[in-house]
Amino acid sequence: MNEIAGAQGVVILDHFSQAATIGAVGACPVTPLAVNGLAARAPGELLNKVFEVAGAATMALPSNAIKPALQSGALDLVVTASQSYLSFGLESELKCLVVPGRNGIMTMLVSLAMSKKSWDALTQTQQAALKHAAEAVHPFAATETRKVDHQAAEQYRAAGATIAELTQEQFGEWRTLSERTAFAGYAAIGPQARRLLDLARAVQ
Predict the structure, then answer these.
(1) Is residue 18 part of a domain?
(2) Which of 66, 87, 192, 203 is deepest in the core (most CB within 10 A)?
(3) What is the rounded CA–CA span in Å between residue 168 and residue 80?
(4) From the first residue on, what is the mean pLDDT of each consecutive set of 10 residues in the chain (204 residues)?
(5) pTM of the full predicted structure?
(6) Number of structural domains, the chain?
(7) Which residues of 145-164 are buried (b: 16+ CB within 10 A; e: fewer)?
C-alpha cells in the first residue's frame, strides 16, 4: 500500500485497523439471511452490495440523519465503527449490537498520512521525528480501539441491548457472500486493487 500511495504523491506513516459494529433495532442480524427485508446504512458502495444481495434495502445517509431515520422507522440497521455508537447516542433506538470479537463483518483501515510534497520539504531530522512519533502512537491507537469496542458494548448492554458476536459459522456465511459481491467488486477496480486483495487474502 505504501508503494501505491507513494506513486500517488502520498506518504503513509502508519496504519491501524478499526473493526465495524452492526447495530439493529430488532433481532441481532448475525447472518445474511437475517438482513433480508431490512433497511440498512453501511459505509460504502461495496458493503452496500453485500447487504443488497442479502435482500436488504440500502440507504445513503449522512451521520446526523441516522438517529432520525431509526426513530422514524425508515432505517433498521447501521454498520459503523464502535466510536460512532458512543458519539451518536443511539441507545434508545438500537436493541442489538453485533460487536467485533474474533470475527467481524468489516475492518476499516485508518492511515496517518501526508503529501509527499510536504514530506520532501522536511529535513531528515524532521522526517525521523515524524516516523518516531508514528511508531510510538501505533500501540496506543490499537489499544484504544479495542477499549472503544468494549466501551460501546458495555454502554449499550447497560441500556438493555443484546450484545452478540459472530460465530465462525456465521462469519463464514458473510465471507462467502462477500467473496462474490464486495471482493469481486473491489477486484474489478483494476490491477492494483486485485493485487491488494490477493495480498489481503494471503494473510492468515
Answers:
(1) yes
(2) 66
(3) 21
(4) 87 88 96 96 92 96 94 96 92 95 86 93 96 90 88 96 96 95 93 89 76
(5) 0.86
(6) 1
(7) beebbeebbebbeeeebebb
